[in-house]
Amino acid sequence: MNRKETLNITIAGTWSTYAGSMMSILNNCGMWDSDRSLADFMGMTGIAFQFIVHKACASSSVTAYDWESDHPSFLKRIGVKTDFCFSVPSQSDYQNVCKIAEKEIKDSIHAGRGVVLWGIDTGEFGIVSGYDDDEKIFYVSGIGSSDGVTSSPILYSNLGRTFQPAPIMYCHYPISYEPRKEHDIFADSLTFYVRYMRESNIRGDFDQGLAAYDYWIHAMNTDFQPFGLRYITGVYTERKILTYQYFEGHNKYLSPDFIEIWDNIQVIFRKIHFDILEQNFNGWNHLHKSVSKTQAKAVQNLLSQAKILEERALQLAI
Q: At the top level of its lineage, which domain of life is listed (predicted)?
């Protein structure tokens, strides 16, 4: 029997679209407290601490990590068990995984749980909130819908093929939830933050943590991609602000010096984003503007200051 089912879910407003998608899904199915902030979700899962930079500041920096490993780990930290489908065209199982994903997505929606999907509206994550077997389409919510424009439905036959520069079949969905004590979650997330920032993890032309600062700082003296620079600045400025809010909200576990340092870090990133690059968090038009040598030098100097501060924060964290 053909079916049509929809859930009332829309993506939360954030530049970290995986986090915005999954938080909204968990809110909707009761696996996340809707009274909690985006800062709590980003901090408790550890997503806020992700900091990856390409040698030329490519926009793909923010997604250059192991989705198959990292996403389930983020959600496990807050007590959510998940499953996923993943494949790329170069793998022999790609066509089969796309068909499996179609069934898994429909089963999850039938169970009242939305699904995170790659490639909704553009090279971003979004939400599959429903399906229609007669029309053979999935109803979705991505950054287009967050800008007041409805995201276009996706044909069943187009799963994994919606973003041609990276035609990745990837969907991720919650299965069950077992609450964890908040203190345990915080301790786990703080430990992850320290380990992540201290570990270099070179993947091609990308690196993470403190080493990512080095890539970014060096790029300001060489050839960098202006669009990519502006994009990663938006993403990481938001994350540094949310990280500060998360730590400040859990200041009973942290020293005043640590909180003060993080306040200074987020102020620096705000200055880079709003003052130096003259960007905002509303829309994408500013991402296509050029970046002058004077702006690049100012960004470089401020990033050097931010790295020194974050090194101090790591010393005080644990």
A: Bacteria
